[in-house]
Write a structure and sequence with these properties.
32% of the residues lie in helices and 25% in strands. It has 8 helices and 12 strands. Helix 4 packs antiparallel against helix 5 and helix 7 (273-283) crosses helix 8 (298-313). The longest helix is centred in the N-terminal third of the chain and has 16 residues, at 6-21. It is globular. 22% of the residues are buried.
């Protein structure tokens, strides 16, 4: 099972917390897990993080309370969170834009606490829909997105027309959409691809057309990667990174991510040899190359980058 990045986990928490907190009597564990696409263990881990959130001076009465009682998830805000914020106009507009992006995260409710807060704040600062404060995540088709979102929730297989590796024409694929997620400003759908016979990730804005079929599916969580995939033609590299330096690769879309002892192993598709060389130099002794495509010639890439750095910072002779 692919472990989500810190960014993906944060987005999930920001959608999960207000939704659960809006139900004073709590929400059944299974319902929360299904809505946000997590296992019970992942949910417990998320609640452990939530319980560490609070405001100064971080005494028990200023912390968010989160627990499971009688198989129901309970989240209560501290009184301090009910105090009104004092924001400048720039801060308010920035907050609205960020909140609207978060409202598009699967599991969030447009008419829930987050949606109502956006509407109230927008009304105060005069940034209603007509003001154009909105978030465009990659130019994905609203029609295609709605089809995928509905099929994901209803567990229906979908036929999509998707460009081939050369991008010359669309190839019809039948997929089981397990999860929709955003990364680096674009929307992606992950799930089982019948054509490939394996889990795949597709960019939603590249899908030419989508059609819901009459066939259902049961999607186990370990069949749906939540990382961004690339065309199969790109060369790949496997890197083992010490935990102390994992944060450097957290924002990078990975084909696979696996914990190995005191390190994390990443499998990456490489579109730029320069980026790979600079990343390896930056990681230094914290990274080990497990495998690399021969076409990358990693040794020469790193040596060239090191020479360029040496020449750039070497003392100039007068």
């Amino acid at each position: 099972m692919t472990k989500p990045t810190a960014t993906q986990r944060l987005a999930r928490l920001l959608a999960l917390v207000p939704w659960v907190a809006a139900h004073p009597d709590g929400v059944p564990v299974d319902q929360v897990c299904e809505r946000f696409g997590v296992t019970r263990d992942e949910l417990v881990g998320d609640l452990d993080v939530v319980m560490m959130v609070g405001v100064h001076p971080f005494t028990p009465d200023t912390m968010i309370e989160a627990w499971i009682d009688d198989d129901r998830v309970m989240i209560h805000y501290a009184d301090a969170f009910s105090r009104p914020l004092r924001l400048t106009a720039d801060e308010a507009v920035t907050l609205i834009a960020a909140a609207r992006g978060l409202a598009a995260v699967p599991g969030a409710e447009s008419d829930g606490p987050l949606g109502r807060s956006i509407a109230k704040l927008a009304a105060v600062v005069g940034a209603g829909d007509s003001a154009g404060v909105d978030v465009d995540l990659g130019g994905a088709s609203a029609e295609v997105f709605e089809i995928l979102d509905t099929a994901q929730r209803d567990h229906r297989q979908v036929e999509i027309d998707y460009p081939d590796a050369e991008g010359s024409h669309g190839v019809t694929r039948r997929i089981e959409p397990a999860r929709l997620f955003s990364s680096e400003g674009r929307w992606y759908v992950s799930g089982w691809c019948h054509r490939a016979g394996d889990a795949r990730v597709f960019r939603v804005d590249r899908i030419l057309a989508a059609r819901v079929t009459d066939d259902g599916f049961a999607a186990p969580v370990d069949r749906a990667p939540d990382t961004v995939g690339f065309d199969d033609a790109l060369p790949q590299v496997e890197l083992e990174v010490d935990r102390s330096a994992v944060w450097l690769l957290d924002p990078v879309p990975a084909l696979a991510r696996e914990e190995v002892g005191d390190a994390v192993r990443f499998r990456l598709a490489i579109g730029s040899g320069t980026w790979l060389a600079r990343t390896l130099v930056q990681l230094g002794p914290a990274v080990r190359i497990v495998h690399s495509d021969p076409s990358l010639d990693v040794t020469e890439l790193v040596a060239r980058e090191a020479r360029q750095l040496r020449d750039r910072y070497a003392p100039r002779r007068v």
